[in-house]
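Box S2. Input/output pair 1.
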Amino acid sequence: MKSRESLVRLKEFQVKEKQRQLSQLQLMMSEFERMTKELENQITFEEKKSGISDPAHFAYPTFAKAARQRADNLQVSVRELKVQQDAAELALEEVQAEFAKAAALEERDSGARMRA
C-alpha cells in the first residue's frame, strides 16, 4: 500500500513541476514580448529623431539598426518558446492523467482497507 501512496506523491510532484515549467515559459514569453515593444518604441524614436525610417538608407541610425536586430531575435525566441510551451502543455496533460489514475487506485485501495 505504501508504494501506491508514494506513486501518488510522485505523480503529484511531477504535475506541480510541469506546471512550474509551463508558467516559467509563459513568463519568459511575456517578458520577451515586453522587451520587443520597448525596442520598437526606441526604434521609432530614433527614426523620428534622425528623420530616416528606411533601414536600407546609408544614414539609418546604427542604434535603430541594432535595436531592430535585437527585436527580431527576441521574436524568434518567442516563437521557439511557443513550441516548447506546446510540448510542456502536452507533457502536463499526460502527467495529470497519470496522477488521476494513481489517485483513483489509491482511493480504491483505501476504500477496500476501510471495508476490511
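Box S3. Input/output pair 2.
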Amino acid sequence: MTYDEYNAFCRSLPATTYVVQWNNSHVWKVGGKVFAIGGLGTVDDPAFTFKTSDLNFVFLSEHAGYRPAPYFATRGMKWIQQYESSKETDEALMYYLKESHRIVSLGLTKTKLRELGLNPK
C-alpha cells in the first residue's frame, strides 16, 4: 500500500481527521485521538502504525513484516507497525486500520460519539 492509498482508505472511515506531524508522518484521528500513522518508512517501503487488540498485538508481533511499534509499544501500548508492505498484505492492513479506528472510537465519550455521528455501543 502506498501512502496515497493509505490516506484514501483512512479518509473513507467515518469521522476522521488528518494532520501531518511527527517527522512528516500521515496521522489519522477519530474524535481527536490517533488511530493510524503512516510514516517513518521510505516512499518505496512505507510503514504503517496502528492500535490493536491484546490478541492481535501478540499475533502480529510474531509475524514477519510487523513489529511492536517504536515508542508506543515501549510504553506498554498495544500498537503495531507494519514495515513490509505488499499487495498481499494490503487487505489485512485495511482490516487492522478499520479495527484500530473502532478500538479508538470505543474510548470516546458517548457525547463525542453522538457529535461525530458514530453509534455509541
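Caption for Box S3: Strands lie at 16-21, 25-30, 33-38, 48-51, 66-68, 79-82. The mean pLDDT is 90.
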